[in-house]
Design goal:
This protein is mostly helical. Helix content is 43%, strand content 7%. The chain has one domain: Cytochrome Bc1 Complex, Chain D, domain 2 (Orthogonal Bundle).
């Protein structure tokens, strides 16, 4: 890199940081409960149309792959998900809408991907699947898709109170070198733009989601990781309790909103 290129890169980074930091100077615009909006409503008409049309929604490829994995026998037990749960259209209807849910063994919250992988290792006696791996994302997207169109109910179990409080605290905690919290963007500045991208209200109604930026399906934890690195904070490991707690808090804020999986975003 030449000296001039280095100067331009540094200037660009400084401008981006200034743009992010400048958000905190704007008056709060927290959405009242009756003004909650899915991230879908902030998207362009073309992106909205892509999500609505199952033949154009690229996230449906993950749903189809997950359906094949649902029927495939795995592990030393030689069993498939369908052997225990039958037709996912019936047995999984409404399941994703209530996750993260309480897990008695952990005495805390577990997300949907964690539950699927736990079922795989304990019921099928199969090796665990890595977070953000294609098979685990496919199974999670497939299961979540069975609840598309249903209202989110997550967070209503009183045993989740500690995890819910932890998630709220993390959402409101300023982090990283830029010293911003999730709330600074998604509560105080929703509806504005950052780097030409709209800032939504952080209601995770479409996850796992297909992002055109990723050219792939990804989990909410992947999106949270991107936000953390964006404010120059150390991200948590995939599957960490902190991510599960934040997801629980965000899903509880979206309670009553409609699940859209798989959503499509820029």
């Amino acid at each position: 890199m030449t000296r001039n290129q280095g100067r331009r890169a540094a200037a660009g980074a400084a401008a981006a940081i200034a743009g992010i930091a400048g958000l905190v100077e704007v008056a709060a615009q927290t959405a009242p409960r009756d003004e909650r909006r899915s991230g879908y409503t902030f998207m362009s008409p073309a992106t909205q149309a892509m999500q609505r049309d199952d033949t154009a929604n690229p996230g449906m490829l993950s749903v189809l792959e997950g359906g094949e994995l649902w029927e495939a026998k795995a592990g030393a037990a030689g069993r498939s998900c369908a052997d225990c749960h039958g037709d996912a259209r019936v047995s999984m209807r409404g399941v994703a809408a209530r996750y993260p849910a309480y897990d008695a063994a952990r005495d805390s919250a577990i997300d949907l991907a964690g539950r699927i992988d736990e079922c795989r290792t304990t019921r099928q006696a199969a090796p665990g699947l890595a977070r953000e791996s294609r098979p685990l994302l496919a199974l999670t997207t497939f299961v979540a898709h069975q609840s598309r169109g249903l209202p989110i109910t997550a967070g209503d179990d009183p045993r989740l109170a500690p995890a819910l409080a932890a998630g709220r605290a993390l959402y409101e905690q300023r982090m990283g070198q830029i010293n911003l919290s999730c709330a600074n963007c998604h509560d105080d500045n929703w509806g504005r733009t950052l780097g030409s991208a709209p800032i939504p209200q952080a209601h995770p109604t479409g996850y796992p989601i297909y992002r055109l930026e990723w050219q792939d399906v990804g989990s909410l934890q992947r999106r949270l990781r991107t936000c953390l690195t964006g404010v120059r904070a150390e991200p948590f490991a995939y599957g960490a309790p902190e991510y599960v707690a934040i997801e629980l808090f965000l899903m509880s804020r979206a309670r009553g909103m409609t699940l859209e999986t798989p959503g499509v975003r820029p």
